[in-house]
Every structure is written in C-alpha cells, then in structure tokens.
Amino acid sequence: MNIDRRWWVAIGVVILVVVALVYSMFNRPPQECDAVRELLEFNQSQAALIESKSGEGDGLPTLAEETAYRAWADGLSERARKVSRSAPDLEWTSSQLANLADEFVRKMSTVRAETEARAPGAPPPPTYYEMSAINAQISQKLAHLTEACGG
Known about the structure:
Blueprint: H1 5-26, H2 33-53, H3 63-86, H4 91-117, H5 126-149
C-alpha cells in the first residue's frame, strides 16, 4: 500500500503539534511559582522606586528612603505569606527574606543616628556593617527564589 505524499505531510504536522503540546504541558513553570514571581516582581518595582527617592546625599538614608524601604519590607512580608500557602517548599526562604528585610529597615534609623553622632573621618558604625551583611543575605535569598522559579 502506497500512501500519498499529502498524507505524510499531514501526519508529520499532527506529530509536531502533539509533541509541541506535550512539551508545553511538561515544560511550564509550576503554578506554585506564581506567588514567588509576584514577590520577585514586587521587589524589582520597589527597588526602582527606592532608587528614584535616593538623593545624591552623603549616603545616609533619608526619611523618604526609610519610608520607601518600610513599604518594601511590609510588601515582601505580605507576599511571603502567599508563597507559604502556594509553595511550601519555598516557604522558609521567602519568610527568611521577609524577616531579613524587616531587620534591615529597623536598623536604618540606628545607622543614621550613629553616623550623625560620629566624628568626621571616623569609620562607619558597626550597624552599617551589620546592614551590609543583611543585604548580602537578602541577595542570596532572592537569588535562590529566582533560581527556583525562573523569575
């Protein structure tokens, strides 16, 4: 039995469509990543907002920056709760991220007060270095979440 060439083309097209459908079904990021991606997108938008509020000052956070950072930390905390409900395997990382962001913001006013009280030319206060370490941990948590959900 000899099959017409058009049938071979039609069979090939059907096979390609089926393969594409199967590939798209198994290659989609899981829905549990929706909350993580929302958290990551929020973080990026807040980073841009905070950068827009940053002045060319002496590096000390202004009250406007501190307010923007507080909104960032509160928003991360809210989104971390959503992650804990939808992606239990990423719950620990997202809750640690929210806790670190809150700790970072709480130290801002302390750094400002300590820096203003120091003598000119004195090294930065210890709280400044603590904030730098917290910032590094925040970056690690964000990288882990990005890697897990392809954000």
